[in-house]
Design a protein that fits this description.
With 321 residues, the chain is mainly alpha-helical. The protein has one domain. 52% of the residues lie in helices and 3% in strands. It is built from eleven helices and two strands, in the order ααααααααββααα. The model has no long low-confidence stretch (mean pLDDT 90). Bound molecules: zinc ion (2 copies).
């Protein structure tokens, strides 16, 4: 990997989940998922935050039977969480640059200015679209789900009723995310929808506020993942986790850095070089690594020079619309 192209690039080729490699190596598969969930992983932190939000910062199902100020309460809670996570990561990585350029993927400085951005400023652009559109669509869908559950329009469950399902649902949501996001993202790269997705792609290099910086139409498609709760038995905490997982995952996978370093050790792995490549080259790496849709459909760039040559070849041969 040439130095000029990336400031930091991981060693070797990007690996996908061993669940999809043959012959199946059960220990490796278990380790992949255990690494994703335990010990202090991002998934687990979001799960804890979802439970805290459910217990302390949510309406009751009784209140949610009619619309009222609780809807604004959900927006405020989600906005505060977004500002804390995206703002905190931005201060750490970019405003104060507490770890310098260590493990930063892109060699160019961030954020940038330019006419391509709203307010001619990448940071203001990203914050505006995240808070005004992102948090609003997220919260509106969460409020609609609360209202639907409260009024018996969606199947409801509790831990006491179905303990196994109640827990399993949390683990299935990230797997579902991998399927759903790949296909929505490919749809966004079609001629009809790219006009909306282009807003996210103003960012050829990214920071935490870029993750949820999307057009309202893209936010609707992205958070539209919650439609599965119309048919699957759900507790409000499942919906809170589902939407919060999508929102916060987008933020933490767009820091522009492979990991958070503190006192000479990598404390949190944030590496999404796979998606950073998507922001640089667009027509490659639409999904994530849990389900290798990109490998299956030939849109995979594994981060090596060979991967890049393959991508060039594929784009050259692609039929022009
Ligand atoms: Zn992105
Ligand atoms: Zn894209």
């Amino acid at each position: 990997m040439s130095r000029a192209e990336w400031n930091h690039a991981p060693e070797g080729a990007i690996a996908v989940s061993p669940l999809w490699q043959w012959p199946l190596r059960p220990v490796k598969v278990l380790k992949w998922y255990a690494d994703g969930w335990f010990p202090l992983s991002i998934n687990l932190s979001i799960l804890a935050l979802a439970f805290l939000s459910w217990v302390y910062l949510s309406p009751t199902l009784d209140t949610a039977q009619g619309f009222g100020p609780w809807v604004l309460g959900i927006w405020a809670r989600n906005a505060v969480i977004t500002v804390a996570v995206a703002g905190g990561l931005h201060l750490w990585f970019h405003a104060y640059a507490l770890q310098g350029t260590r493990m930063k993927y892109d060699p160019r400085p961030f954020p940038r200015r330019g006419r391509v951005f709203s307010f001619s400023d990448q940071l203001k652009d990203n914050m505006f679209w995240t808070l005004v559109s992102g948090v609003t669509v997220w919260s509106a869908l969460e409020a609609a789900a609360w209202w639907g559950l409260a009024n018996g329009l969606m199947p409801r469950t509790t831990f006491a009723q179905t303990p196994v399902w109640f827990i399993a649902f949390f683990f299935l949501i990230p797997v579902w995310e991998s399927f759903y996001f790949y296909w929505i993202h490919r749809l966004l790269h079609t001629r009809v929808f790219y006009r909306f997705h282009a807003l996210h792609h103003r960012n050829t290099d990214v920071g935490p506020w870029s993750g949820l910086s999307m057009h309202p139409v893209e936010h609707l498609l992205y958070f539209g993942t919650v439609v599965i709760h119309l048919i699957l038995p759900t507790s409000p905490v499942h919906v809170i986790f589902h939407l919060m997982f999508y929102a916060l995952l987008a933020i933490v996978t767009h820091t522009g850095f492979e990991g958070l370093w503190f006192r000479n050790a990598k404390r949190v792995h944030l590496g999404m070089f796979h998606h950073q490549i998507h922001h640089r080259y667009f027509e490659v790496n639409y999904g994530n690594l849990d389900v290798p849709w990109d490998k299956l459909f030939g849109s995979f760039h594994d981060g090596t020079d060979a991967g890049k040559a393959q991508m060039r070849e594929r784009l050259k041969n692609r039929k022009r619309p």
